[in-house]
Structure formats: structure tokens, C-alpha cells
Design brief:
By secondary structure, the protein is α/β, with parallel strands linked by helices. The chain contains 7 helices and 9 strands. A 5-stranded mixed β-sheet has the order 6-5-4-8-9. The protein has a two-stranded parallel sheet with strand order 1-7. Strand 2 and strand 3 form a beta hairpin. The longest helix has 19 residues. It is globular, with a radius of gyration of 16 Å.
Length: 202
């Protein structure tokens, strides 16, 4: 898979389409549901992957805690599988996921980058920083620019913004979408091990 950036708003029609999608995305977020179901390794389906280019993976994000700039692509350039969660501060299931992912990072020695993207446009960096510091979460934390949310919804379906938390695993040129819900640290570790094995055997 080629994680290369391409502009989708180069024509007037595409420009209008882009902003129509933004309105749809914002509506999805506002009316979204949190999914508190606890998931496991058996819920992972390696066939449920994103296909084609993922232009939003090159969009620059600014870390809400450190102010560092990065993109999903730059995290992948570290050569390790990347875990990405969508979340919102008001979402208790998301908080459960962030707690499990922090435990996962502790157990793996921070081996795998974890990107946590706040998709609620009403939440600001200072809100995220307070939430993270209060709960001692670890990982990368950033608010999602509109074009990031739009691109994600285009490639993975609007349900990724309507049902949170959502978890994605990126390994090499593969991008896997997991069913919405909370993944314990053990399940994340086992899923990453399985996608790493699959990548090395292909």
C-alpha cells in the first residue's frame, strides 16, 4: 500500500464534495455512540483492511502534550507496527481503551507507537492535555484536523466516527480496521504479533 498524499479538492466539484463530507462527518461525531464491548483476538479479521492510498496518513498532526509535529506516515517510518485509536474525552469507553493501551505500552516497553486521535471538533489541545495528565495515559495525542477525519471516513466508512473507540493497526503496507470496542492490552499484543507474522510470511 502506498501511503502517499494526493489532493482531492483540485476541482470545484471536488471542493464542494469535500465540504459536504465535512458536514456529514461533523454530524456523525455529534450523534456518535460509544462502544464499550470488550473485544479480543477472535474479533480481529485480517481481511478487514483498508485498500488503496491513504492520503490522510500524510497530514501533519500537532501533539497536544509536547507540541511535536508528526503524521501517521512519519510514525510508520520508524519501522514498527502503529496502533491508532479514535477517541473523545467524554467517551468513557475511550478512556477504558486508553487505560488498556497505556498498560500495553508498559508491557511492551513502548516498542510500538500509539497514535490517539481526538475526533470531536469541540475538544481542544488543552482539554486533551488535562485529560491525559489526569489519567497518566501514554502515547501520541492529537486533535484530528477536518481533512484527517474526512479522509478517514472516506477510506474506512463514516461509522468509524459514529462508533468510538475505533482501533486500527498499521503494519508495513497493511492497514487493518478492527471492530469498534475496547481491546485489552493482551489482545492488542496478540493482534500485533499475528499481523507481524502474516507480513513476514507473505
Amino acid at each position: 500500500m502506498n501511503f502517499s498524499h494526493r489532493c482531492k479538492t483540485s476541482s470545484p466539484f471536488a471542493f464542494l464534495l469535500f465540504f459536504s463530507i465535512i458536514l456529514l462527518v461533523c454530524s456523525a461525531i455529534v450523534n456518535g455512540d460509544e462502544i464499550s464491548d470488550v473485544k479480543g483476538t477472535d474479533d480481529f479479521d485480517s481481511n478487514n483492511s483498508l485498500s488503496g492510498d491513504l492520503p490522510w496518513s500524510d497530514i501533519t498532526l500537532t501533539d497536544a502534550i509536547s507540541g511535536e509535529e508528526y503524521s501517521l506516515s512519519s510514525l510508520l517510518d520508524q519501522g514498527k507496527p502503529v496502533v491508532m485509536h479514535t477517541f473523545a474525552i467524554w467517551c468513557s469507553a475511550c478512556s477504558s481503551q486508553l487505560k488498556e493501551t497505556t498498560l500495553f505500552q508498559e508491557e511492551t516497553g513502548g516498542m510500538y507507537p500509539v497514535l490517539n486521535v481526538d475526533i470531536d471538533p469541540n475538544e481542544k489541545d488543552e482539554d486533551i492535555e488535562s485529560h491525559v495528565n489526569k489519567n497518566n495515559y501514554s502515547g501520541y495525542f492529537a486533535t484530528a484536523p477536518a481533512e484527517f477525519s474526512v479522509g478517514l471516513a472516506q477510506d474506512a466508512g463514516v461509522d468509524v466516527l459514529m462508533k468510538i473507540p475505533q482501533t486500527f493497526i498499521f503494519s508495513g503496507n497493511n492497514a487493518y480496521k478492527l471492530p469498534a470496542g475496547v481491546y485489552p492490552a493482551k489482545a492488542l499484543n496478540e493482534i500485533i504479533a499475528s499481523v507481524t507474522e502474516e507480513g513476514s510470511s507473505s
